[in-house]
């Protein structure tokens, strides 16, 4: 039979309440008593019943994490940061990914009710009305890169608009006068902000320059499709196709690194030189970005750090600490060879709005 809390109390010659206070970390227990009870637990191989503990503390010691996807280096880095911070606090994670629309997101949120002490949410559907419709009013929530951040909910994000603006500024300063952009998924807040930054920088820095938008969805496959299409235009050398080639972009900025890398591989497979024939830049600085050849110019987002900060803020909210409002983390412009840079990689701080 499994060892119970009563067995521990009897073996330690203390009350059940004393054992419970040790399990729940109460400061009213002396260090001597705590050490004695913990030693008995170890001796008896006692495993606390999490469900029973939650009845007395009203806490599950579990936090929910809702992300758009779990595939790829970006989300692996995000979960790495969240998991590291959770483990330091003795918390468990309940993770769900979304591949559908608002109905699926709503179902995932409702499924976590009663199972978690708080939620980390990154979802294109996570506006204030959506959250209030699907979650208990007093459940602690921290949003990641969300349009609802800074209002009723705590949030952690980067300034996607300023970062995209800084990338176009770098490409224009490098002599590129025709800059294309691979968009992210429709309705995605980060993608919208990066597109907005691209457009604003193009209008301000290259007046009269034509926007060239290519539809993307943050996947490597989407970038590869754009790269293959551009390779055909770059290879056009005669007649009407030569005129089309002259109108093509001479730099391509992708809304994330996975699309930039997909485009780069497709261009190179078709014999197009990067950056000789077309310069290339991405966004996020996922680990593989520095290892492709040429190494990718990108915006460095503190992905794991963002997850860590979000979990720490959520733990504070669960403990009853004040912690609302928006927290904006600093991004960096990382200049490597893919945009035509010939020296060593260099990084430059991107000022946060109002900095």
Automatic annotation (TrEMBL):
Domain of life: Bacteria
Domain HTH lacI-type positions: 3-57
Pfam family, one: Peripla_BP_3
SUPFAM superfamilies: lambda repressor-like DNA-binding domains, Periplasmic binding protein-like I
Sorted UniProt keywords: DNA-binding, Repressor, Transcription, Transcription regulation
PROSITE patterns named among the record's database cross-references: HTH_LACI_1, HTH_LACI_2
One function term, GO molecular function aspect: transcription cis-regulatory region binding
Database matches in PANTHER family: HTH-TYPE TRANSCRIPTIONAL REPRESSOR CYTR (PTHR30146:SF151), LACI-RELATED TRANSCRIPTIONAL REPRESSOR (PTHR30146)
Protein name: LacI family transcriptional regulator
